[in-house]
Design a protein that fits this description.
By secondary structure, the protein is of the alpha+beta class. Helix content is about 40%, strand content about 10%. The longest helix has 19 residues.
């Protein structure tokens, strides 16, 4: 009708804007949205629109400038933004012309093998702090579950490039480690093993170390964790797949790792929790009710539910060198563990059970 130039490219940008703007697509905004459609399709005036998702507008402008200089990468870029987990948004990818093709191919390979996603969540953590912070309590990671694959979209899209900078850097490092000739899952395991060995040589056991080493700490499905302190550390809540808030049962990843390490014993309660993340969570011994809780300094012991275990519990507390507040401290340097708290917690619970609690 209007003899418009470059219709496919402009319609592609419009598609990307619509996909990235679920919160902006409202009836009361429709007149402004339609005016912006005219600006995009008829006038190629991306810089003038104001009703669609602003982060996606910036992404479209950046991609347009990138392809103007590197038109040979058009096919690779379009194939990447057409992926159903991205749907137009590639803010989680570095626009590096020398490595763009290889990284795009590696991402498609990784995304097409969901049986390797669980190992990918560990390898990505080894590559860097790739998670997104959605508020000062909630953190989004990837998922090992095909069923809950939208966690990857929540992680990789929906924010401006500045907010995605850590995700982008870690993803690039991981994609660079994927070789076409290698089996994917063993390659991802090798990335984790190499990183863990380095951390163990440095005695640097932060929250990332535990989440990489102990796969139970990544089995939540949703990829969502809550922290009572507003920062990722030694006290976390891990949400099940299909949930996004603390209104149903969830796991404490540290306590779950200890329970799994013990072999899921029947004489220790299966550690499920409910309620606000600040409510104390304890791994409880079924017989006595004695519990342990992971805290910043180490483990906090809580007493038995029955009086007939009180004397034995007090005796063991003294032997363990527990502080007045019930804390068994773990060796640390600047607030970071220098010994493996999961191994210590496993030995602690086993010792309590063997003593009769």
């Amino acid at each position: 009708m209007y003899d418009t130039d470059a219709i496919p490219a402009r319609i592609r940008s419009l598609r990307n804007l619509i996909e990235a703007s679920p919160n902006e697509l409202r009836v009361d905004r429709m007149p402004r949205l339609l005016r912006d459609v005219d600006r995009v399709v008829l006038g190629d005036a991306l810089g003038e629109i104001d009703s669609f998702n602003k982060a996606q507008v910036e992404d479209e402008l950046l991609k347009r400038d990138f392809l103007a200089v590197h038109p040979e990468l058009t096919e690779a870029l379009h194939r990447l933004e057409d992926h159903h987990l991205l749907r137009g948004s590639i803010g989680a990818f570095l626009l590096d012309p020398e490595k763009f093709n290889a990284r795009s191919d590696a991402f498609h390979r990784l995304a097409s093998e969901p049986e390797s996603w669980f190992e990918a969540t560990g390898a990505l953590l080894a590559a860097g702090e790739y998670q997104r912070t959605t508020n000062n309590r909630k953190f989004q990671f990837g998922t090992g579950s095909k069923r809950f694959e939208n966690a990857w979209r929540e992680l990789l899209t929906g924010a401006d490039r500045e907010a995605l900078s850590s995700t982008r850097a870690a993803l690039a490092r991981l994609l660079d480690s994927i070789d076409d000739g290698d089996d994917l899952k063993p390659a991802l395991v090798a990335v984790q093993s190499e990183w863990l060995a380095q951390r163990e040589s440095e005695l640097d056991f932060d929250w990332r170390y535990y989440m990489v080493k102990y796969s139970a700490m990544r089995e939540g499905g949703s990829g969502i964790y809550y922290s009572e302190s507003g920062a990722l550390g030694y006290s976390l809540c891990m949400l099940r797949g299909g949930t996004s808030t603390l209104n149903s049962r969830y796991r404490d990843p540290y306590l779950l790792a200890i329970w799994r390490n013990l072999g899921n014993p029947h004489n220790v309660d299966d550690p499920w929790f409910t309620g606000h993340e600040r409510i104390p969570r304890r791994l409880r011994l079924t017989r006595s009710g004695v519990g342990i809780r992971s805290v910043s300094a180490g483990f906090e012991l809580s007493g038995p539910a029955l009086d007939n275990f009180a004397e034995l519990y007090d005796s063991l507390r003294r032997e363990l060198g527990t502080s007045e507040s019930g804390i068994i401290e773990i060796k640390q340097m600047d607030g970071i563990d220098t010994v493996d708290r999961i191994e210590i917690g496993t030995d602690l619970v086993r010792g309590l059970l063997d003593a009769g609690l």
